[in-house]
Design brief:
A hairpin with a 2-residue loop joins strand 4 and strand 5. The N terminus is likely disordered. Helix 3 runs antiparallel to helix 5. The chain is built from 19 helices and 12 strands. It is an alpha/beta fold and 566 residues long. The protein has 3 domains: 235 residues; 53 residues, no CATH class; 245 residues, Rossmann fold.
């Protein structure tokens, strides 16, 4: 008796024609898995200028992502339960349609978020972030996650020899989708973010998703001629709108035109991208009819990084921000004979250059290469005159040599100082960087209505440094926020502070005089009731939420909304 023609040899069968299509569909699952985590990572960067980088923002992103994925899995499963006779489209067509639906939804998100996130951020830091996440990535994620149950149903219906019985290939589907997500994170972190704006990166994703559906229309054998025509049309539309908005992104975001805001003309000089943030250099000029005296303190070049104004210089290159002078003067006034200094956070690079002019040997720790580039290109920073170490401050202080006369700490991220740089463990490492009589000088910020949260910084610093001096220009109900400068000593200090001489713009001199008019009393009650911040238990993001909200509202009120979109 002859063997059946399908039998090649014992235990094997010839290749089923649908096997090639299954492999194609798995490639699509890999692509959309990569897009899923890429969207999530890019969303965090898009939200930063509007909402900061607190734990609550990440909670919103993760919550909305998981809800969207769950809903997509559920809806995809519900569709597959319908009998074939009740379906308007085949499962193959629905499966191939999902990437382009996600892509077109991403284009819509890119059109809407520059126009709406400013309002969300001004209304509520936490709820605004949740609504922003929904607008930005909810529909795209629902669409791509629906593909997993759809593919499992397709494989089950065909009952090919590879997928018959057992889990119908579901394990492999989710394995490949997850591996794609890992690859998507890497591509986004090391490809998109350092080399492109977040707006354009989202549009690249939408283009890739639309092209995925387009290729499916050409290569899938599981759809009818009518379905193929419709899929081709929708996919071509997705590619067209994605590429079109990408080509017009500078025009849409008004990057090439001057924006009139608060009586001045604002224009984008340059934008830097890196793994650590988005930096913009803004030029601020007077407009006809506005008395220049009213906006004098804002005319010049502004250094803006992910929601924080790092510095402003006038047309002569002099800083218009008081903290630039306050940090330098406090450190050199208390240690006039200093020969070696460490600065954590470069900013615009003005302070280390001034210290170098005073004969101080300066080491600067800065993690963001775009900050170094911006400081060099626009703010007179010369890396040949100071030693720049590109690394994380926490990593650096663990192993520094303990020979600095003073350490300046000016590290802002999102809404202020990163909470992991406010713990007793960090301050212990920081103390280890200092010479025997060395001091630490910190630039900090507080909302006057929420000083209890701020005092957790003071308490944690005081747990390591037995004497703390505080300077600011006064706290009152009429003044909603205040910059506070802290000097931390390793032992009781009887040195008198004498403000050193230096060239100071006229508008800054009165502020500095008020800051250094007297050493301010540390409130004993606030200090006693404050949290002690430790690596193992750090509530700063939670207790400082209202202060973060106030800070974010002030940022949104003082910068043109057009320049927040990155």
């Amino acid at each position: 008796m002859n063997e059946p023609k399908s039998k090649l040899k014992s235990g094997t069968t010839e290749q089923n024609p649908s096997e090639g299509q299954n492999r194609l569909y798995l490639i699509y699952i890999f692509i959309t898995g990569a897009a899923t985590l890429s969207m999530e990572l890019l969303a965090s960067r898009i939200l930063t200028p509007y909402f900061g980088v607190s734990l609550f923002i990440w909670s919103g992103i993760l919550s909305i992502t998981l809800i969207a994925l769950s809903l997509g899995y559920y809806l995809g499963g519900q569709v597959t339960r319908k009998p074939k006779a009740e379906r308007r489209s085949s499962l193959d067509c629905l499966f191939l349609l999902m990437p382009v639906i996600s892509g077109i939804a991403l284009v819509g998100s890119c059109l809407l978020y520059p126009k709406t996130f400013h309002t969300f951020g001004s209304t509520s830091l936490v709820m605004g972030a949740y609504f922003a996440c929904i607008l930005l990535i909810f529909i795209p994620l629902v669409a791509v996650s629906a593909m997993n149950p759809l593919l499992i149903a397709i494989q089950t219906e065909r009952q090919t020899h590879t997928y018959a019985g057992g889990d119908s290939g579901s394990g492999l589907v989710f394995f490949i989708s997850t591996v794609g997500s890992v690859v998507g994170v890497s591509i986004t972190a090391f490809g998109f973010i350092p080399n492109a704006t977040n707006f354009n990166s989202m549009l690249v994703l939408s283009t890739i998703l639309s092209l995925t559906s387009l290729s499916g229309a050409f290569f899938s054998s599981g759809i009818s001629a009518g379905e193929k025509s419709r899929l081709l049309a929708v996919s071509a539309l997705g590619v067209a709108v994605s590429v079109g908005l990408f080509a017009m992104s500078s025009t849409y975001l008004k990057k090439n035109e001057a924006i009139v805001f608060e009586g001045a003309s604002w224009s984008l000089e340059r934008e830097y991208t890196s793994m650590f943030g988005n930096t913009k250099i803004l030029a601020i000029a007077p407009i006809p009819g506005t008395p220049e005296a009213e906006i004098q303190e804002r005319l010049g070049t502004l250094y803006y990084n992910d929601g924080i104004t790092q510095n402003i210089i006038d047309h002569n290159g002099a800083s218009l921000t008081p903290f630039t002078y306050a940090l330098e003067f406090l450190a050199t006034g208390l240690r006039p004979d200093a020969s070696r200094a460490l600065m954590l956070g470069l900013g615009a690079g003005i302070i280390p250059m001034e210290l170098e002019k005073r004969g101080v040997d300066v080491d600067v720790v800065e993690i963001d290469p775009s900050s170094i580039a911006a400081a060099k290109d626009y703010f007179g920073f010369d890396p040949a005159k100071v030693n720049v170490v590109q690394t994380d401050a926490r990593t650096f202080v663990r192993s520094c040599d303990g020979d600095y006369d003073f350490v300046l700490m000016d590290m802002a991220h999102g809404d202020g100082l990163p909470d992991y740089l406010l713990t007793t463990e960090f301050f212990t490492d920081l103390r280890g960087c200092l010479a025997q009589d060395g001091i630490a000088v910190l630039n900090t910020y507080a909302a006057t209505a929420h000083l209890q949260a701020y005092y957790s910084i003071v308490k944690s610093l005081n747990a390591v440094f037995p004497e703390i001096w505080m300077y600011h220009d006064g706290i009152s109900a009429e003044k909603p926020a205040v910059s506070i400068y802290l000097a931390a000593f390793q032992r009781a200090n009887d040195t008198e502070f004498v403000m050193p001489r230096g060239m100071v713009p006229a508008g800054i001199a009165s502020t500095l005089k008020a800051i250094f008019a007297e050493r301010r009393q540390i409130d004993a009650d606030l200090l006693a009731n404050a949290d002690l911040l430790e690596d193992d238990f750090n509530r700063f993001s939670f207790i400082n939420l209202e202060s973060d909200q106030f800070f974010r509202e002030s940022v949104l009120a003082t910068l043109p909304p057009e320049f927040l979109a990155n």
